[in-house]
Write a structure and sequence with these properties.
The chain has nine helices and seven strands, in the order αααββαβαβαβαβαβα. By secondary structure, the protein is α/β, with parallel strands linked by helices. A seven-stranded mixed beta sheet has the order 1-7-6-2-5-3-4, with helices on both faces. The mean pLDDT is 92.
């Protein structure tokens, strides 16, 4: 029985990468066109949402999204969520309809094919380089001025399996304050259980999402970065505890 589980998990992971790759191959010409001009990014975003739904459906994931507040069209926001799974990117794309740009780690550009488009559409950051972090602010500013939103997983990476919610980094909150845009906390409840970074784990099932009330940044200054960060983390942590009463960190 245990051997059968390992075989399932191995095939399940391979299937995930097949699903990630297949739509990119099929849509490659259209994807290339959609990234050829920055003003065409909304087209790329629509294609990315289709790609995300295709993967989630193909993996046997269903999702339930509860929204306390709905983002308005043609307005910019800072979307933040807890980071636990390889499926977080896909679920974020499904959850948020407003075109946004991910701020993410540069290492993902090494993934074949996916990395090609990731590098050309996301804001990459090398967290060991202060120069890179400064460049993120400049690129994010340009994207926000063009009417797009930004999405950051503020934990700065995926925490170890036993940690439900890691410490938040300052970047997302400083950006939101600097540009005086609403901050949108989002809680993912089941992604770690469905498709964590532990190879022999996971399986089909429900993914629950909670989009919380927006947190205003109007009138806030750089000195408010930590209070804003702490408030956001508390909102997400409390929701994790609602989803799973065993969460206590």
């Amino acid at each position: 029985m245990k051997i059968l589980k390992y075989i399932f998990w191995t095939l399940y992971r391979i299937w995930f990468y097949v699903l990630v790759t297949l739509p990119i191959l099929v849509l490659f010409p259209i994807l290339l066109i959609s990234i050829s001009k920055e003003s065409w990014y909304p087209l790329f975003f629509r294609l990315a949402r289709f790609w995300a739904k295709f993967i989630l459906l193909g993996m046997g994931f269903t999702y339930s999204i509860n929204r306390d507040e709905i983002p308005k069209a043609h307005e910019s926001y800072m979307f933040v969520a807890n980071h636990t799974s390889m499926a977080d990117i896909m679920l974020m794309l499904v959850t948020v309809k407003n075109p946004f740009v991910f701020v993410g780690k540069a290492e993902l550009t090494k993934i074949p094919l996916f990395g090609f488009f990731y590098k050309r559409t996301c804001i990459l950051v090398d967290r060991s380089s202060p120069k890179s972090r400064h460049a993120v602010f400049l690129r994010a500013q340009k994207r926000l001025q063009s009417g797009l939103s930004i999405c950051i997983f503020p934990e700065g990476g995926v925490p170890e399996e036993h940690i439900e919610l890691d410490e938040f980094q300052n970047g997302a909150f400083r950006l939101a304050i600097n540009h005086q845009i609403p901050l949108v906390p989002i809680t993912f409840a089941d992604n770690k259980k469905r498709l964590s970074y532990t190879f022999f784990s996971g399986g089909p099932g429900l993914m629950r999402v909670k989009m919380h009330e927006f947190i205003t940044t109007k009138g806030l200054g750089v000195e408010d970065t930590k209070p804003l960060k702490d408030e956001t983390k508390e909102v997400i942590l409390k929701q994790l505890q609602v989803f799973n009463p065993k969460v206590n960190n």
